[in-house]
Specification:
By secondary structure, the chain is α/β, with parallel strands linked by helices. It has one domain: Rossmann fold, CATH 3.40.50. Helix content is about 35%, strand content about 15%. It contains 9 helices and 9 strands. It has a 9-stranded mixed sheet, with helices on both faces. The radius of gyration is 23 Å and the shape is globular. About 10% of the residues have low confidence.
């Protein structure tokens, strides 16, 4: 090593090592950032297409635009009121993949039970602001919609409904606002890690890479508002046992509506009478709250708010 001292070699080696570590760190950080950005897409599976079973929007539905955040973004919502001006209000939080079009036949059944319904599309879905949805952004969307109810239907009992993935946003809200009148979790999972384990790829060691956890099992213990769990025993999307685990962990006043033979999507249609009875009884709502609704379809009314 003519002309190069031992100390110089050490310095060059340290410089080389530090550069390698910096490159490795950038690769890991970049990979994690990519994984973080992609997780939302994998979990939410937002689509611009309309649900294959879409129907015309009932004439009773009114479109609303709900501002969210401080950058001018918004969520698109359907306001589906019943005639009773004192009726309880439900915030309807749908699950993954389909936008509001996937709930067009379900929302009127909640109207029939006596609820005025505000149903939203998370940012990244339907007509809401375009973006890659994440766990955090969906929680912000649910919070914005929850607050918005007070501007369109103040001084009402307010209930939170979450179907499947929407159950995570619902438990988040129920934990944040103990003043909610009730929480309904339909076909809701425990957390994303356990959902992955329930798939054919559950043997893969990816648990440590999941940063968007949607951990209902962790939160449900601390939810104080009354809870109704509903799940079909033949659900092939979210295992029935997950609602059993959530129910066992819940400490609030609770009820489990077990739909024998029910699937992931058919509880309010196939089991309407039993489901409605469970909801009205558990939350102390009177049968006379059940209203008949007009099902005549017409172009949806628009209201910018």
């Amino acid at each position: 090593m003519t002309g190069i001292t031992f100390d110089r070699v050490i310095v060059m080696f340290k410089l080389f090592l530090s550069r390698c570590l910096a490159i490795l760190f950038l690769l890991i950080a970049g990979g994690c950032a990519y994984l973080e950005s992609r997780q939302g897409d994998w979990i939410f599976r937002p689509t611009e297409t309309t649900w294959w079973g879409n129907r015309e929007i009932p004439a009773t539905f009114v479109e609303h635009t709900v501002p969210v955040g401080a950058t001018g973004e918004f969520i698109h919502a359907w306001w589906a009121p019943v005639e009773d001006k004192n009726a309880p209000v439900m915030l309807y939080l749908h699950g993954a993949r389909w936008n509001l079009s996937g709930s067009v036949t379900r929302i009127p059944r909640w109207n029939k039970m006596g609820f005025s319904v505000l149903a939203i599309d998370y940012r990244g879905f339907g007509k809401s602001s375009p973006r890659a949805p994440t766990e955090q952004s969906s929680y912000e969307d649910a919070e914005a919609a929850w607050a918005y109810i007070d501007t369109i239907a103040p001084h009402r009992k307010k209930f939170i409904f979450g179907h499947s993935l929407g159950g995570a946003m619902a438990t988040h809200l129920a934990l944040k606002d103990a003043g909610a009148s009730g929480l309904i979790l339909e076909a809701t999972f425990t957390n994303i890690s356990e959902m992955v384990k329930a798939t054919p790829f559950g043997f893969l060691p990816v648990g440590g890479l999941i940063t968007q956890r949607f951990d209902n099992l962790d939160r449900i213990v601390n939810v104080k508002v009354p809870i109704l769990f509903a799940h079909g025993t033949d659900d092939t999307t979210v295992p029935f046992v997950m609602s059993e685990k959530l129910f066992a962990a819940a400490t609030a006043r609770k009820y489990f509506f077990k739909a024998e033979g029910g699937s992931h999507h058919n509880l309010t249609s196939r089991f309407y009478n039993e489901y409605a009875s469970a909801v009205l009884t558990h939350f102390g709502l009177h049968p006379e709250n059940v209203n008949s609704i007009t099902t005549t379809s017409a172009p949806v009314k628009k209201k910018e708010s």
